[in-house]
Amino acid sequence: MFLRQFKYLVAVADEKHFGRAANKCNVTQPSLSSGIKQLELELGVPIFLRGRGQRFHGLTAEGDRVAKWARHIIAHCEAMRDEIDSMQNDLKGNLRMGAMPSMSPILPVVLEMVRKRHPGVKVDVAFIGNEAMKIGLDNFSLDVGITYMDNADLGRRNVMPIYTEKLSLLVPDTDQYEGKTSISWVDASKQPLAMLRPTMHERRFIDQVFKKAGCTVSPKIESESILHLMFQVQFTELCTVIPQHFTRMPGLHPGTRALDLVEPVVSQEVGLFWAEGETMMPMASAMVGIVKSLNKSGELRKRLGEGGPPPSASRKTAKR
User: Fold this and answer.
1) pLDDT tens-digit profile of 172-182?
2) Mean pLDDT lowest for which of 9-18, 86-95, 296-305?
């Protein structure tokens, strides 16, 4: 058995198409098919379901298990190379990270430290939900994940806290909200709202808080983009719920201001997740080192302005 045969198998399983898998592996389709057939002969089991033509018909039960082992073998071989590079203070390769969309403004601080410590590392960030993150960590297509600790259904994982996320209500900077620094969830429910879609984790959490406060909401606009919702507030009369760190990273749009959401004050802890195992993969180890440094210095929490007053943008829009 050769490593390239396992790579052929994983490529077909991912692409669900022999031709695309061959292109991904930079080989001809006959070479890829020959390598997989040789692997089947050595293992003594069929890996793929056979049907008419050369179309992909799926994996056999044995093939599914072989594919899982193939992913482990490939990941450990890549980790071995990374660890050797790391021993020579020259870590190279791809750091594959999954993250929730609301964490996008935080990542520049974290990834800047990765680039400084490990200039040979290329970072690939995928903004995905918890289910996709769990699959990625399981099949080694992700090295680490950054998501909410309390409600993360990622299975058995190592985890390290990074920061605490609180919530604010982003409102137009008009006379209606002048002088206010906070607003209750009940009063927030009475504002014209733009919100994330109900399928998103952040929206489900917000709905739970509204319910706990004894109220429900009926948003005027729903979207999967927090940035789009912030534009709605900037240019219309709508309000939206945002993570408090958005008020500083990336910062408020002109004509908007942020009010602390109170009664109740709620928060979610955000953490770094990586696979359990006797040996920590080098890319995960690199990220753990970065987060440890941030936690020790408190740099990230300082940048997020924890404990500071809610900011507002520089100018006020016309009264609506």
Assistant:
1) 999 999 999 99
2) 86-95
Domain 164-267: CATH architecture, name and number where available:
3-Layer(aba) Sandwich (3.40)
User: Tell me, what amino acid is at 100?
Assistant: M
The sign of the dihedral angle between the CA atoms of 211, 213, 217, 222 is: negative
Q: Count CB atoms within 10 A of the CB of residue 153.
A: 9
In this structure, what DSSP letter does residue 260 have? E
Please say whether the beta carbons of 279 and 191 come within 8 A: no
Please state, in angstroms and as integers, the Cα–Cα distance from residue 305 to each residue in 50, 55, 298, 301, following that order. Answer: 59, 56, 11, 6
In CATH, what is the architecture of 88-163+269-303?
Answer: 3-Layer(aba) Sandwich (3.40)
pLDDT of residue 69: 85
Buried b (16+ CB within 10 A) or exposed e, 241-272: bbbbbbbbbeebeebbbbbbbbeeebebebbb
Mean pLDDT rounded to a whole number for the chain: 85
- 275 neighbors 281 (Cβ within 8 angstroms): yes
Which residue's entry shows tokens 């504002």?
191
pTM over 0.85: no
pLDDT of residue 176: 94
Radius of gyration of the chain (CA): 24
Reported as a single tens digit per residue, the pLDDT across 225-253 is 999 999 999 999 999 999 999 998 888 99
| Closest of 16, 103, 120, 133 to residue 67, by C-alpha | 16
